[in-house]
Amino acid sequence: MNRRLAKGLLSALAIVIALFWAFPVYWMVSSSFIPTAILQSFIPTFFPVNGTVSNYAGAIADGSFFSALGMSVAITLTVVLFCIIFAFLAAVAISRFRFRGRRSFVIAVLIVQMLPAEGLFIAQYKMVSSVHLLDSVIGVSVIYIAAVVPFTIWMLRGFVAGVPVDLEEAAMVDGLSRFGAFMRITFPLLAPGLVASGVYAFLQAWNEFTVALVLLPSEAAQTLPLWLRGFVQASATRETDWGQVMAASTLVAVPVIIFFLIVQGRLTSGLVSGAVKG
Amino acid sequence: MSADTLTRSNNRRGIRAPLLLLIPSIAILVLGMGYPVIWQIVTSFQQYGLKQQFGQAAPFVGLDNYIALATDPQLWVVVGKSLAFCLITAFVTLGIGTLLALLMSTVTKTARLVLQVALLLAWSMPVVSAMTVWIWLFDRRRGAINYLLDMVPGIEMNRFDWLSTPLTFLLVASIIVVWMSVPFVSFSVYAGLTQVSDEILEAAQLDGATGSQRFWGIILPMIRPVISIVLLLQLIWDLRVFTQIKLLQDAGSKSGDYDLLGTYIYKLGTSAQDFGMASAVSILVLGITIAMSWFYIRSLLKEDAA
Description:
heterodimer, A: mainly alpha, MetI-like_sf (chain B), transmembrane (chain B), MetI-like (chain B)
């Protein structure tokens, strides 16, 4: 009886904490539907009773929203595509083959993951500008892929190692080539891992701010995070229009939130299995 | 030893196949990370200011940049602040994250699901969106936080400007970073907790171990691998925190008193255009990062060799 009471109290506590944690997200979405005139009052409005979508119209009407959206989509697709291919090949190499230098590569991957990208942006700026790729999709993408590939290798390697080699060998005994066995047996089993890696790459490329700030200096080449920052700053020169700012912020966040909710379980299990298997 | 036997039996195509598979990743890492690191190391020994930006050759000046850094009291203030910020934020994140993970493993299914969804929402927020809403929550005049705190009797928070003193500025930054990082920590630790076997815990309970004894004696040692990698990642991420500080500076003050290492380097590189000094500070950050990761990497090497 005592234990059940404790469990009930703890459950209530968990729900209260959950409400606190979700509050900023709720606040962003809720405010984005509240008319500006109401938001201007000094008493916060906690529920969007007389909701409006005019804030969204106002945010999208800002001329550069669609060009920023296009830029973000182009960069994100490039990064996701190349990341998956590169990381997949590398993960196969380190979990299906034993070769000299394998261990050094695994450790190098771990260490590269720890390099502070924020400490490298000057060199990256010099490098990208010297080949005249500032404000281009390619320049930023190269840096993003390099930043994301180590973690995706780390994650995929857990998935590849999880597919028993016996299955492949059985298929080879049945007459498939090594490559054929891999494509027909292992590859389908890896699909969840590939999706998880792809979404991880998507999140990083979509959300990244620092490198974009440095490598995409002109307004025409902004990604969505840069656009949002510019939108907030432009709004702050007048009285900040919080309704529109929250609508803009929600527009940037919604695709991410949806994708994230879909794949999160795989992301954490991938990381933990990587850590446990050393 | 077993790796050697595997080499012969498992690898029918010799060494070429795995290397071919690794080439794309190695190439992109050399280009995107390796070259910048080396450029940065070289530049940190050069005089690289405005003239060099316009094409003049950069002369090597030996340790001059590092000496200038070592004797610059302002830098050491920034380093101290960054380290304090990083340690406090990382350990608070780890503490709260672990507590929430333990909570997840004891509460009812519904409560756990609610908590997990809430954490996921926070986790999935793009950093710029998150900063925008938090800056509004902390807004001096119309922010919900001042409004709610003001309702607590005895607390006078009306129009309190959180971003106007370095201490409250960094407190706000720390709160936001903790809010954003706790979900990752709790999910990782929770995943680790699910691998602790119930039988061992029950056996310990039968033998009379109390709750805290079970935590410190059984659970913690078993989830130590997860805890250590998560803590290390937090330390590294919090040391180089840039976006949050930069965006808070957009909303508040841009003065040097509000800088941590990330924004300090950024200003050296962009406003002062002193790439040599900026590179030297970056190398310093790199050094601190490696020093922090050293124990982890060493233990990894040992495990792998065993």
